[in-house]
Design a protein that fits this description.
Layout: H1 2-20, H2 37-47, H3 50-55, E1 73-75, H4 102-106, H5 111-130, E2 140-142, H6 165-180, E3 190-191, E4 193-196, E5 209-210, H7 214-221, H8 223-230, E6 236-239, E7 243-244, E8 247-248, H9 254-260, E9 268-270, H10 275-281, H11 289-299, H12 309-318, H13 324-340, H14 367-380, E10 382-386, E11 400-404, H15 426-434, E12 439-443, H16 450-457, E13 460-465, H17 499-508, E14 512-517, H18 525-530, E15 533-537, H19 544-552, H20 586-589, E16 607-614, E17 618-620, E18 624-633, E19 639-649, E20 660-669, E21 674-682, E22 688-690, E23 695-697, E24 701-710, E25 713-723
Helix pairs in contact: 2-13, 5-6, 5-14, 6-8, 10-11, 11-12, 14-19, 15-19, 16-17
């Protein structure tokens, strides 16, 4: 009776709307955008056949019979990937705007940079889907990677935002909001975060278990995802390959118990590619596909990145391992996302429906996007050393430059890159910057002493080295260079093999500048001790060369900061598969002196800190205070300073980190300019997870507050009392 009554109501709505002429003719209630999302989803489920339900567990839940439009997935960690080394374009690539790798974006220490990148990316994603010329792709973007780079040997280090959970959460929220847009009802694209959770080892990832206690689960490993959901508004994520405490994440109870029941995640929860089969052949967790499929559905999975899943679902239903009602309950999340994307509503009421229709040229060919790529890349460059102010270079005083190294005349794309419309290599950027008045010569390597001879003959040598993000075609799961890593391959060492080339070039020309283009930290101890100037940047930006030249010659003052601890030796790190970070992982627990600390970076100018002021010396458990410091540029160049706020618990009743970042601001100051920089400190960010009470608790405690330029450089400090 209920279904019959619903159909009658549907016809009545259609009749009324057809008379009013305000909307397209509707056949079904779910097409009425004025109904609640849950009413529309319930109607969709009631209309589906069992075979259609099973088909909608794929990554494109469309049902042509019912005129239900679905949309698929695309990759987009640092620009939409519709090409690149992995051929995401499937033999028909489309160029898109490509920015620096995700770890590089994080090194900007500027959430607005990440939001800007994601906004551009989401616009291009819509454009390609909706443009009559292309009409391909999908609106569910697999980004950001909210997992944590707790270990610099991780092969996928390039995809994350660094080692700190609070910092990563801040950047995750910014990227999610950029992808989804600011409209209160519709999303430009849907942000699908990956990989939930604790997936930061590649070797053995298909069967390994990341083991740690409940406090680390809540305070560290799940924290960026939690913020992505509750603060950013993401309603999609991918479960990781690994197990957590011996239970594969694909079927782990926390998918439903934490993300759905506690956080309100009510959209897409998908497997990683091939993860369904790994439950049987790698984890050995289930004996057959029927039980594996039932485990996935019961855990909350509603999209499979496997083509073989339908037989398992049918078998699970036939053997009563799951009911159709259980299938219905998880399937609803897919359609909630489709509705938020506006796919089931009239185009005239969806604010993003004209993208790709009204544009005169593709967005990736516009000057606006090209300039954005350049400006973003500038902000990601980190100055690691600048002895005797060798940098910036004065092109008016230089007659010759030797540009040397394997990364000098190329822009390398990583596995999750798209294909940019053009690339500017470092060599091309330098030549363009100095013009014909300066003699720029190039040597890729030192075969026949070519690099040494070139360095000796030049006023200055610029040596550009670093990893190869796809391991130079070594094949899946392989890297011929021990310090390289990528998906499916962790790094074996952290030395820079090219440091031998650095030594030879430096011996030939003491005015040597090293540009380390890398996805990872390196133990470049000799280079740090001897070479006068070192810059770090990451791969893939189409504007790499122009942005680097802007920094080398002083048209942009570098202000990037590191988002990981760079150790002096791999011996300073705990075993890679030790997920208990208290044993020495991250700056919060690092044992020993690092080569470069978390938050480190230099500038061409100097900054003075003074007048640390607190809005209150007492912080109530449900409120916040404002930390204010005056920062002055005491140098002769305009520059960016990243003001960083760290806390240390002095009287906590439980174990706490040595220090934790809880706020930062990137500010641009002209010479002699002073600014009062305000950073809020919320009491909730000081909470710890009480296992007995099963919630975060803000305890009465004395907190030391430090403000400075990195985790190891405190300029000013004070204390506050946290009270109930």
């Amino acid at each position: 009776m209920k279904k019959k009554k619903l159909i009658q109501v549907s016809f009545l709505i259609t009749f009324v709307l057809s008379i009013s002429g305000t909307l397209f003719a509707q056949k079904y209630p779910f097409q009425n955008h004025k109904l609640s999302v849950n009413e529309r989803v319930d109607n969709i489920i009631s209309l589906l056949t069992l075979d259609e339900k099973i088909a909608c567990l794929s990554t494109n839940p469309g049902v042509p019979r019912l005129e239900i439009k679905g949309t698929g997935h695309v990759e987009g960690l640092h620009g939409l990937a519709k090409g690149g080394p992995s051929n995401w374009g499937q033999r028909d690539p489309v160029t898109t705007t490509i920015f620096p790798q995700a770890i590089g974006l994080a090194e900007s220490w500027d959430p607005e940079v990440l939001k800007r990148v994601a906004t551009i990316e989401s616009y291009e994603t819509r454009y390609i889907v909706q443009s009559p010329k292309y009409h391909k792709g999908g609106l569910v973007v697999r980004a950001p990677n909210a997992d944590l780079g707790r270990d610099p040997r991780w092969g996928r280090n390039e995809e994350c935002y660094g080692e700190d959970a609070w910092f990563n959460g801040t950047m995750t929220v910014a990227f999610v909001k950029g992808l989804q847009g600011d409209d209160p009802k519709y999303w430009r694209t849907a942000s699908l975060m990956k990989h939930f959770l604790a997936n930061s080892n590649e070797n053995g990832r298909d069967s390994s278990s990341s083991d740690f206690d409940e406090r680390l689960l809540r305070e560290y490993y799940s924290y960026p995802f939690w913020r992505g959901v509750v603060e950013g508004g993401s309603r999609a994520y991918m479960a990781s390959y690994n197990a957590y405490n011996k239970i594969p994440m694909t079927v782990h109870p926390i998918l439903k118990d934490i993300t759905v029941k506690e956080w309100g995640q009510d959209g897409i929860i998908c497997t990683d590619g091939g993860a369904f089969a790994l439950l049987m052949n790698a984890h050995k967790y289930y004996p057959d596909a029927d039980k594996a499929a039932a485990g996935c559905i019961k855990a909350g999975i509603n999209q499979f990145l496997d083509r073989v899943y339908p037989a398992g679902i049918k078998g699970a239903l036939a053997k009563n391992y799951i009911t159709e009602a259980t299938l219905d309950s998880v399937l609803k999340g897919n359609f909630r996302v489709m509705i938020k994307l506006g796919l089931l509503d009239p185009p005239e009421i969806v604010p993003y429906s004209n993208i790709g229709i009204s544009d005169t040229i593709p967005p990736w060919l516009t000057k606006v996007n090209q300039l954005a790529a350049r400006e973003v890349t500038q902000k990601t460059i980190v100055l690691l050393k600048n002895s005797k102010n060798l940098l910036p270079l004065d092109k008016g005083k230089i007659k010759s430059i030797a540009v040397i190294g394997p990364r000098a005349d190329e822009v390398l794309l990583d596995w999750y890159s798209g294909t940019p419309p053009y690339t500017i290599s470092p060599l091309a950027g330098i030549k363009s910057k100095v013009g014909a008045a300066v003699d720029v010569k190039y040597a890729r390597d030192n075969v026949d002493d070519a690099a040494v001879h070139l360095a000796k003959s030049a006023d200055v040598a610029i040596l550009i080295v670093g990893n190869h993000p796809t391991c130079e075609g070594a094949g899946w799961g392989k890297c011929s260079t021990p310090s390289d890593g990528r998906e499916a391959v962790d790094r074996k060492v952290m030395i820079l093999e090219q440091e031998e080339l650095i030594k030879k070039v430096f011996s030939a020309n003491p005015k040597t500048i090293v540009v380390l283009v890398s996805s990872f930290p390196y133990t470049i101890n000799w280079t740090q001790e001897n070479v006068p100037a070192i810059l770090h940047m990451t791969h893939a930006s189409q504007e790499m060369g122009n942005a680097l030249a802007d920094v080398l010659f002083g048209d942009f003052n570098p202000g990037g900061r590191l988002v990981q601890t760079w150790p002096k030796s791999m011996d300073q790190l705990p075993p890679m598969t030790d997920y208990n970070i208290r044993n020495g992982h991250t700056y919060m627990y690092f044992k020993g002196e690092p080569l470069y600390p978390f938050g480190y970076g230099r500038s061409y100018t100097n900054f003075n800190y003074s007048k640390l002021e607190l809005s209150s010396k007492k912080l109530k458990a449900d409120s916040e205070i404002t930390v204010q410091v005056t920062v002055r540029n005491t140098g002769k160049r305009t520059g960016d300073e990243v003001v960083q706020l760290y806390v240390k618990h002095l009287n906590s009743t439980v174990s706490r980190p040595l220090k934790e970042i809880k706020g930062f601001r990137r500010v641009t100051l002209k010479p002699n300019e002073s600014r009062k920089v305000e950073i809020p400190l919320k009491a909730e960010t000081l909470a710890w997870w009480d296992v007995a009470k099963h919630r975060f608790v803000v305890e009465e405690d004395k907190i030391q507050i430090t403000v400075g330029t990195s985790s190891a450089d405190a300029k000013l400090q004070d204390t506050i009392q946290v009270m109930h």
